[in-house]
Design brief:
This protein has 363 residues and is an alpha/beta fold. It is built from 13 helices and 13 strands. The chain folds into two domains: 212 residues, P-loop containing nucleotide triphosphate hydrolases (Rossmann fold, 3-Layer(aba) Sandwich), CATH 3.40.50; 65 residues, Alpha-Beta Plaits (2-Layer Sandwich), CATH 3.30.70.1560. Bound molecules: adenosine-5'-triphosphate (ATP). The site of adenosine-5'-triphosphate has 12 residues, from strand 1, strand 2 and helix 2. InterPro entries: AAA+_ATPase, ABC_transporter-like_ATP-bd, ABC_transporter_ATP-binding, P-loop_NTPase.
């Protein structure tokens, strides 16, 4: 079953226009003019149950607006959406029982009361039985190590402590879908890693579907097999993270540290016949750039044996760079190069843009 099913979803906001000058301001007092801003432009995607999907894009791309529609906070201008079998903005009461939401920038806990009191209030909001509440709370408190924090008021918690409590608050009613909007924003690396581990475990053990909005691509790398990329309200990529790296990554670099000094001619000679590029870092260190369609082992087998090597490092394509490049170009199907495809794909003449919904979880 699909956890999230979105077709041609659109959201327009009415924005007030401010006319220039004193005259304009006076006119605005009597008659306001408005323009329509399309924040989300007819997007479609499906997320199967149990998938962790990253939802990324630059500031103002439309991520939060989408999440707000998916969680029933905003009513779409047009299009269809079904989440967990419900239309979020219509079936609110039943719908919220099955979802959990964490907005990294906003708290759902009461600021001045003890954390445990907030949890008790949320138990009533979600109508969780006493027994289920106790069992679930014990589990979550233990996993996230919150024992010491339960009686402290939220305002006295550090950001990392608060975020762990926010996760508990969002999961007390055991939702099958979790929406996370920037859950690791402002956290230090240790807490980020703890939260990522917790989310992985939640997904693995309970099959919770997770839609994750983040600017931190390490979150995506750690958690998501699939990524949906938004640009100016439209989806420009929907597919596997590995696929994105393979198609956009321009190759890999391997650094060799040799025992004895080498020249550029020496190293180039070792791989003659291969379409690679060498550069010298210093007299014993050389780097070779290998195009993405070539196997690294092909190059290694030529070099190892001819020269004594003291160290080898392989530099993989960096997701940050790939994503930045795609944002800048506004399209994810530009560098498509048939030579990069497997022979089967090339023979079949597969030409679909990467934008097509080919998430890993759909296979
Ligand atoms: N209530 C609103 N009224 C008018 N315009 C809005 C409103 N909410 C969002 N927008 C506009 O819609 C566009 C998308 O905003 P949204 O907050 O969804 O982007 P985002 O991808 O979440 O950005 P960020 O990463 O900065 O949070 C922006 O141009 C924003 O100014």
């Amino acid at each position: 079953m699909l956890a999230i099913d979105v077709h041609q979803l659109r959201k327009e906001f009415k924005v007030q226009k401010n006319r220039e000058g004193l005259k304009g301001a006076l006119k605005d007092l009597f008659k306001r003019e408005h323009t329509e801003v399309a924040a989300v432009k007819d997007i479609s995607f499906q997320i199967p149950q149990g998938e962790i999907c990253g939802y990324i894009g630059e500031n103002g791309a439309g991520k939060s607006t989408t999440i707000k529609m998916l969680t029933g906070i905003l009513v779409p201008t047009s299009g269809k959406l079904v989440v967990n079998g419900y239309i979020p903005y219509k079936d609110r009461e039943k719908f919220v029982q099955g979802i959990g939401v964490v907005f990294g920038q906003r708290s759902q806990l009461w600021w001045d009361i003890g954390v445990i009191e907030s949890f008790r209030l949320l138990r009533k909001v979600y109508r969780v039985s006493d027994e289920d509440f106790r069992r679930r709370l014990d589990e979550l408190v233990e996993t996230l190590q919150l024992q010491e924090l339960l009686n402290r008021p939220v305002r006295k918690l550090s950001l990392g402590q608060r975020m762990r409590c926010e996760l508990v608050a969002a999961l007390l009613h055991n939702p099958s879908i979790l929406f996370l909007d920037e859950p690791t924003i402002g956290l230090d690396i240790v807490v980020k890693m703890e939260i990522r581990e917790f989310l992985k475990r939640l997904n693995r053990e309970q099959g919770t579907t997770i839609l994750l909005t983040t600017h931190d691509l390490q979150d995506i790398e750690a958690l998501c097999s699939r990524v949906i990329m938004l640009d100016d309200g439209s989806i420009i990529y929907d597919g596997g993270l590995e696929e994105l790296k393979t198609r956009w990554g321009k190759g890999r670099e391997v650094q060799f540290q040799f025992t004895d000094p080498v020249s550029l001619d020496d190293v180039t000679f070792m791989t003659s016949g291969l379409d690679v590029r060498w550069s010298l870092e210093n007299e014993v260190t050389a780097k070779v750039w290998i195009p993405r369609e070539m196997n690294v082992s092909e190059v290694l087998s030529k070099v190892v044996g001819l020269k004594d090597i003291s160290d080898i490092k392989i530099f993989e394509t960096n997701t940050d760079e790939i994503v930045r490049e795609i944002y800048q170009s506004g399209s994810a199907d530009a560098p498509r190069d048939l030579s990069a495809l497997s022979s089967n794909e090339a023979e079949a003449g597969e030409k679909e843009p990467i934008k097509a919904g080919t998430g890993a979880g759909e296979s």
